[in-house]
Amino acid sequence: MVRFISCDWGTTSFRLKLVDTADLKVLSEISNEMGVAKVNRMFLDSLVGKGPSREDFFKETLAKGLNELQQASGEDLSGLMIICSGMASSSIGLRELAFTPIPFNVSGRDLNMDFIGVTDAFPNSLILLSGLKSDCDVMRGEETQLIGIIQDYKSFGGDGVFIFPGTHSKHITVIDGHVVDFTTYMTGEMFEVVGQHSILRNSISANSDLSVADHLAAFRKGVREGYSEPLLSTLFKVRTQELFNTYTPEQNYHYLSGILIGSELKNLAKDSGFPTYLCGTSGVFYPYQLAFETLELLAVTISKEMVEKSVVSGQYKIFNQNLNHERSIFLGSF
């Protein structure tokens, strides 16, 4: 396999990359908002008539993306293998796959997956990767990023807590090269829900400028109070600070962000003995860095470039581990 197509299919986003396997260099890429949730809604709407099956419907969306990637690259992509991670293997995705239970070896060799062969209508084979589950939590996509980061971060010693900020932040504990636990925090989603659909919506004004001293001070205060005080009562201060003219709505916006991030980070033990790795490229990555600094929590910052490459690195690592595994579903497939 000289080249492959990386598909990162999230809840709200869809990304395709043409990758050279020699150095995992991305030769061309496209992205759009045709995430799994949106495609699923479109599929359910199509059932009013006599539409295609779920798998065929998702393949149609994937084919449109491949055509766009083909135009961007100027190359014929038919026949190339697609490796797909994220929510495509969920109950609302292309084909539901069972989660892989933890403990999980970060080599990726035990990850559940499925192979979908070439058809006349779809000239690309597809490897669909699943996610992980604990007794009380699940994830799809971050495990592939984690595998990629550990593959590329040569200084990793086998133990650590990896934090992936986002709409649903993940804290993943790795001991002796195995995922032994992880926790999901609905930090980003709570920020949106509280800020747009609660009484607090009238007390904040969206902005992204943390370089303003007053905004930064409000954020840091929110982090400290979210970390040390009860979340539900602290949230109401957003309302009273606006009523008493203590904070402007712009300051309150960052104060609210700080509260939620601080509340998330209170569950990090300062003396766990394990290094903490902060991984992320999203718009909330910088606020998380500031929160760690404010709380004097130590963290190794994984570079933006490494995190961006992690999906591709993880997918290729998983493919190679399973290609050579005696129980591999790929044996005899090529």
How much of the residues is beta strand, in percent? Answer: 15-25%
Instruction: Note the gap between the termini.
Output: 10 Å
Shape: globular
Q: What would CATH call the class of the largest domain?
A: Alpha Beta
Residue windows where pLDDT falls under 50 for at least 5 positions: 325-334
CATH architecture of the largest domain: 2-Layer Sandwich
Helix content, binned percent: 25-40%
**In CATH, what is the homologous superfamily of the largest domain?**
2-keto-3-deoxy-galactonokinase, substrate binding domain
Instruction: Let me know the largest β-sheet.
Output: 6 strands, mixed
* Strand ordering within the main sheet: 3-2-1-4-8-7
Q: Number of folding domains?
A: 2
Count of helices?
A: 10
Average pLDDT rating? 92
Radius of gyration: 22 Å
What is the ordering of alpha helices and beta strands?
EEEHHEEEEEEEHEEEHHHHHEHEH
CATH topology grouping of the largest domain? Nucleotidyltransferase, domain 5
Q: What structural category do the secondary elements indicate?
A: alpha/beta
| Tally of strands | 15
Defining key terms:
Nucleotidyltransferase, domain 5; 6-stranded mixed beta sheet; 2 domains; disordered C terminus; alpha/beta
Report on this model:
- Strand 9 (132-133) and strand 10 form a beta hairpin.
- The protein has helices at 36-46, 54-73, 142-152, 187-197, 213-228, 231-235, 237-243, 249-265, 285-295, 304-323; strands at residues 3-9, 14-20, 25-32, 82-86, 100-101, 104-105, 113-116, 126-129, 132-133, 138-139, 160-164, 169-175, 178-185, 276-278, 300-301.
- Helix 5 runs parallel beside helix 8.
- Helices cover 39% and strands 20% of the residues.
- The protein is globular.
